[in-house]
Automatic annotation (TrEMBL):
This is Enoyl-CoA hydratase. Belongs to the enoyl-CoA hydratase/isomerase family. InterPro entries: ClpP/crotonase-like_dom_sf (IPR029045), Enoyl-CoA_hydra/iso (IPR001753), Enoyl-CoA_hydra_C (IPR014748). PANTHER family: ENOYL-COA HYDRATASE, IP11341P-RELATED.
Length: 259
């Protein structure tokens, strides 16, 4: 199985599983990944998603052997990027539940873009990002032109994407690309701890927060305020909000059920 899907404690763990090829992405793996993301998005019992890689890499981006075959056959890239990478990234960003990337090793090209699309990135000390696109004469895809400048600012994003230098975990933390950096042998535990915490949180409010941020990113303040009002109304109708308000007034800890 090129992608492993497992649910425990309301966390869906999606593991990219082609370790011999650094979890680089073939068409069938991209289809499996998209299927797993859609399954997690649609399952009400899943309240957070954890994305990681098997072996020593998170994901080395497009499988370049398959890519070379496509070039040789004269197949253009727009179709495959639209058919695979775009829906994968949109599935992560528009999912109404938080997505945590446990970056266990190198994340290159579309693999780095995939990590940037997630809501959180917990990095092992030996993890690194490689904006490998320019190194093979390509421009960014999988949303890196959009996500990276929002994460590190336009000047840094330009530098990283044009120069393609490798960013180690310590530098990633300085740049704001890492939520946290932990020793490699603590990564699984630290990322899972965060995912479980999120899975026990106000799922509807988390989804609304993601939608509010995405909406506000390209809108005026009056538009953002209007969208916030709509989303706040949606959250106010949830059982979680009613129970948490009551818990606050009773000086109790809230328990969120995700509805
Ligand atoms: O077609 C489209 O849809 C276009 C879309 C493009 C999106 C993209 O993602 S473009 C960017 C593609 N990715 C890259 O350019 C990264 C290429 N890989 C590397 O730069 C390095 O391998 C790494 C920095 C990821 C790791 O370096 P290192 O020294 O730790 O390992 P290595 O020895 O280079 O690789 C280990 C094995 O993984 C090796 O296989 P082998 O020789 O042991 O049989 C290597 O060929 C394989 N591997 C690594 N990356 C890829 C790969 N195989 C296929 N595709 C890869 N991307």
């Amino acid at each position: 199985m090129s992608v492993i899907y497992d649910v425990d404690e309301a966390v869906a763990t999606i593991t990219l599983n082609r370790p011999d090829a650094m979890n680089s992405l073939t068409v069938s793996m991209k289809e499996d990944l998209l299927g797993a993301l859609r399954r997690a998005a649609g399952d009400r019992a899943v309240r957070a998603v954890l994305l990681t890689g098997a072996g020593r890499a998170f994901c080395a981006g497009q499988d370049l052997r398959e890519h070379a075959d496509n070039l040789e056959a004269g197949r253009g890239l727009a179709g495959t990027v639209r058919a695979h990478y775009n829906p994968i990234v949109l599935s992560v960003t528009t999912m109404d539940k938080p997505v945590v990337a446990a970056v266990n090793g190198v994340a290159a090209g579309a693999g780095a873009s995939l990590a940037f699309a997630c809501d959180f990135r917990i990095l092992a000390e030996n993890a690194k990002f490689s904006m490998a696109f320019s190194g093979i004469g390509l421009a960014p895809d999988s949303g890196a032109s959009w996500t990276l400048q929002r994460l590190v600012g336009p000047a840094r994003a330009r530098e990283l994407l044009l120069l393609g230098d490798v960013v180690d975990a310590a530098r990633a933390a300085e740049l704001g690309l890492a939520t946290r950096v932990v020793p490699a042998d603590r990564l699984a535990e630290a990322a899972r701890e965060l995912a479980v915490r999120l899975a026990q949180g106000p799922t509807v409010a988390y989804g609304a927060t993601k939608r509010a941020l995405d909406h506000a990113a390209s809108r005026s303040l009056p538009d953002a305020l209007e969208r916030e009002a709509e989303l706040q109304d949606e959250c106010a109708r949830t059982a979680d909000h009613a129970a948490a308000t009551k818990a606050f007034l009773n000086k109790e800890r809230p328990r969120f059920e995700g509805r």
